[in-house]
Design goal:
One of its GO terms (biological process) is lipid metabolic process. Helix content is 34%, strand content 16%. Helix 3 packs across helix 4. The longest helix is centred in the middle third of the chain and has 14 residues. It folds into two domains: 230 residues, 3-Layer(aba) Sandwich (Rossmann fold); 69 residues, no CATH class. It contains twelve helices and ten strands. By secondary structure, the chain is α/β, with parallel strands linked by helices.
């Protein structure tokens, strides 16, 4: 956790404008592809005129739009684009839904663009968010000006559903007394999660723990119950993606050399899905944008500023 904080502090946080928006939708979701939900987001603008399509960013599993705050602030100094950092459904401050898959998250993004009259946009996603953005680009290529995928493969994921189920089981079975302080609750929750996974993942998950100031009740910001239910369906991602044509727009993958989420031997197969793609390797783990923020910013801004 200290490493993440130190990396974020090293970013050049320029003067910029941030608009915080929270939208809440009260609906019931029962189908595999429900009506889209209206997503919570932060938007960032720089001092330069916005002459290019905006950049839309999706975070990974257990994440939120706050994960992209430092990167977004730095990016608007380097590119002539508005940047939206978005909470995906069942995460952060976006609505909870009984459905969680790339198809549904793609429909959420389509609605997001439609409501803001954006004919197209650059799209960037990390991990789960990267898979959603890849699906979105192949489903709606006319809406995607260019694509950035951060440390995730469209072919396979390294974690077994068994390990992930243990993590979610620890989350949903957590029973903390409202009389506990936040620090006491965090200590107990962390100890329980450490029995299911390693330190770095636990620190990331712990960012989701909330305590109601009125009732004292503890809860998770992410919808752990639904995410657990849809775990076994993550493996169907590739078969769903194969139903769609390749995305031929400019695409860049940014991956960590110490991360198991992208395997070098898969690259020829990935290029068939994204024929106008390139890949960059940084000396990092899965959280490549936290561990190597300056290198990450250089690659992303150069890619976004290209004129092809």
């Amino acid at each position: 956790m200290q490493r993440l904080t130190k990396s974020l502090r090293s970013l050049p946080f320029p003067a910029g404008k941030i608009l915080r928006t929270q939208l809440v939708v009260r609906r019931e979701y029962s189908s595999e592809i429900p009506d889209p939900v209206e997503l919570s987001f932060d938007s960032y603008t720089g001092e330069n005129p916005e002459t290019s399509p905006p950049l839309l960013t999706y975070h990974g599993l257990f994440g939120s739009k706050q994960n992209w705050r430092g990167i977004s602030k730095a990016l608007v100094r380097k590119v002539s684009r508005k940047v939206y950092a978005i909470d995906v459904r069942n995460h952060g401050e976006s609505p909870h839904s009984s459905v969680h898959n790339s198809k549904a998250m793609s429909e959420d993004l389509r609605l997001f663009m439609e409501q803001r009259s954006h004919p197209n946009a650059a799209c960037m996603g990390h991990s789960m968010g990267g898979r959603s953005m890849m699906y979105f680009a192949r489903k709606y290529p006319e809406l995607v000006e260019r694509l950035i995928v951060v440390d995730i493969s469209p072919i396979s994921v390294p974690r077994s559903t068994g390990e992930m189920t243990e993590i979610f089981d620890a989350m949903v079975s957590l029973d903390l007394s409202p009389s506990m302080s936040m620090s006491e609750g965090r200590k107990i929750a962390r100890e329980k999660l450490l029995k299911a996974t390693e330190d770095e993942t636990v620190d990331f998950i712990m960012l989701n723990l909330r305590k109601n100031p009125d009732t004292g009740a503890f809860s998770w910001a992410c919808n752990a119950h639904v995410l657990r239910e849809f775990l076994t369906r993550f493996d169907k991602y590739q078969s769903n993606l194969e139903e769609l044509p390749p995305y031929t727009g400019p695409t860049t993958f940014i991956c960590g050399t110490r991360s198991p989420y992208m395997r070098r031997e898969q690259w020829p197969q990935i290029q068939k899905m994204f024929p106008n793609s390139e890949i960059h390797w940084l000396d990092a783990g899965h959280l490549v944008h936290f561990e190597k923020p300056q290198e990450f910013l250089t690659i992303v801004s150069e890619f976004l500023n290209r004129t092809e």
